[in-house]
Amino acid sequence: MSGADPRQPQGRDRQTMAVAAIVVLQAIGAIFFVADAIGDLLTDGFGAHIMVECVISFALVAGVIFGARAVRFMLVQARQRNEALAIASGALADLIHQRFATWKLTKGEADVALFALKGCSITQIAELRGTAEGTVRAQLARVYAKAHVTSQAGLVSLFFEDLLDPLPA
Fold first, then answer.
1. Using CA atoms, how far apart are residues 54 and 40, in angstroms rounded to an integer?
2. Alpha carbon of residue 140 to chain centroid
3. Of 4, 25, 41, 84, which cross-links 11 as Cys (Cβ 3.0–4.6 Å)?
4. Within a domain: residue 3?
């Protein structure tokens, strides 16, 4: 199945634009049918043809109204999701800095710990920092000791525990 994932921001943007485009086309159609119905009513009087055009015009106008409300709702939801993500990102960054300060990590230990939180391996961290793998291992060992954990997974879980609400009993 191809196409954008609607859970991703780009997919939601495309969905919103598609709905907006359909609403615009419906509005154009509604204007055409309303104008045609008025013109026919003035020249031919009321009849079955005019009645059908009035029903179609009403349906198109209703579609435009509901479509416009849907686009507005989608835009509000997207804004709320973006705000929530910004808050969560800021909260995580604040939590990380607070924990690193509490543990009294050195600059090098903090850098290594941050890469570990991002899921980097010892080899990747060493390459990114331009240091030996042994140095990274030693720094990680000190970070784990200061954090009272024994692994990268344990380090990551400390931050998730603080960010997630406790599950209902």
1. 11
2. 32
3. 4
4. no
Question: For residue 5, is pLDDT > 50?
Answer: no
Q: What is the dihedral of CA 105, 110, 114, 117, to 10 degrees?
A: -30
List the Cα angle 74/76/80 in 5-degree steps: 115
Q: pTM for this structure?
A: 0.51
Cβ atoms within 10 Å of 33's Cβ, excluding its own = 20
CA nearest to 100, candidates 88, 89, 109, 91: 109
More confident residue, 26 or 109: 109
Give tens-digit pLDDT for 126-139: 999 999 999 999 99
* Cβ atoms of 133 and 122 closer than 8 Å: yes
- The answer to whether residues 17 and 76 belong to one domain is yes
pLDDT tens-place string over residues 30-52: 888 888 888 888 888 888 878 88
Supply the DSSP symbol for 151.
S
Considering 51, 85, 119, which residue would you say is the last residue of a domain?
85
| One domain for residues 64 and 116 | no
Which structural domain range is residue 149 located in?
Answer: 103-163
What average pLDDT does the chain have? 83
